[in-house]
Amino acid sequence: MPKTLKEIRIKAGETAEDARPEDIDFVLSERLNLTPSEYELKQDLVLTDDQVKQANKDIKKLAKGVSPQYILGYAWFLGYKIMVQRGVLIPRFETEELVEWTLEHLQSGDSVLDLGTGSGCITVALSQEAAKKGINDLDLTISDITDTALRTAEENLLTYQIDALVRKANVLIGLGKFDKIISNPPYIKESETKVMDENVLQNEPKEALFGGKDGLDFYRKFAEQVRDHLNSRGEFFMEFGFSEEEELRALFAKELPDFEIEFKKDMAGKPRMVHGRWQK
């Protein structure tokens, strides 16, 4: 039976041959509580019997195509440990940039809606990072369309002792008015299914991924409803698919002519975020 980390790593690659090497390394390093550099430097580390048993269980799940974050039960987002489970979207690095952009505009006392909260990662990171910057007294609301997401988000908020109103809602229907709305909505086009990672399709909730034929179903509903849910000079921050900028620009120009709209690229240079400010 393999005993060293190197031997377990080799076995994982042979057993879960369709798993990405970085996913295998992520699971093994997290179980052993090793940083990326420690993981590479300690390949001769001898594992205990319990650690070997756990690794074998994890390898079997990786071989079945289970996402590494679902195996561990958590993901990392802006340095915060976020609980996730099947039925809840796994946080993405791109969304970290959306949070950081929102922080640049956030003020103490703002009322903030995390629309389509999923795991609650946005609210956790936003509130914690805001406090570090001296931005306090935020009036926080999270909403989602599924009970599974809301239960998971509530647990993450509880972990970080964050007080927020929790609401079940389809886009903005039934919600109040806010100074800031931040959202990572479903935006994948139906046609993009064939080029997506099978791991994502197999594991993550379809309602959190797909935005209709052209990926813009959510944004159309949002544009129709947003004026009723923003305070004067209110702002929204949203993520979108990198191929959708022109269509989204045209949609907002038509539906939200009284908004100042700004688009921003992510660190990879791809169009990824949009900021809208109501001029009223």
TrEMBL record:
UniProt keyword S-adenosyl-L-methionine, yes or no: yes
InterPro entries membership: DNA_methylase_N6_adenine_CS (IPR002052), HemK-like (IPR004556), N5-glutamine_MTase (IPR050320), PrmC_N (IPR040758), RF_methyltr_PrmC (IPR019874), SAM-dependent_MTases_sf (IPR029063), Small_mtfrase_dom (IPR007848)
Keyword Transferase: yes
Alphabetic keyword roster: Methyltransferase, S-adenosyl-L-methionine, Transferase
Protein's recorded name: peptide chain release factor N(5)-glutamine methyltransferase
Pfam families, A to Z: MTS (PF05175), PrmC_N (PF17827)
Known EC number: 2.1.1.297
Single Gene Ontology MF annotation: nucleic acid binding
Upper taxonomic lineage: Bacteria, Bacillati, Bacillota, Bacilli, Lactobacillales
Catalysis performed (reactions): L-glutaminyl-[peptide chain release factor] + S-adenosyl-L-methionine = N(5)-methyl-L-glutaminyl-[peptide chain release factor] + S-adenosyl-L-homocysteine + H(+)
GO-annotated biological processes: methylation
Record domain Release factor glutamine methyltransferase N-terminal: where: 19-73
Domain of life: Bacteria
Catalytic class of the enzyme: transferase
The Methyltransferase small domain, residue ranges: 103-196
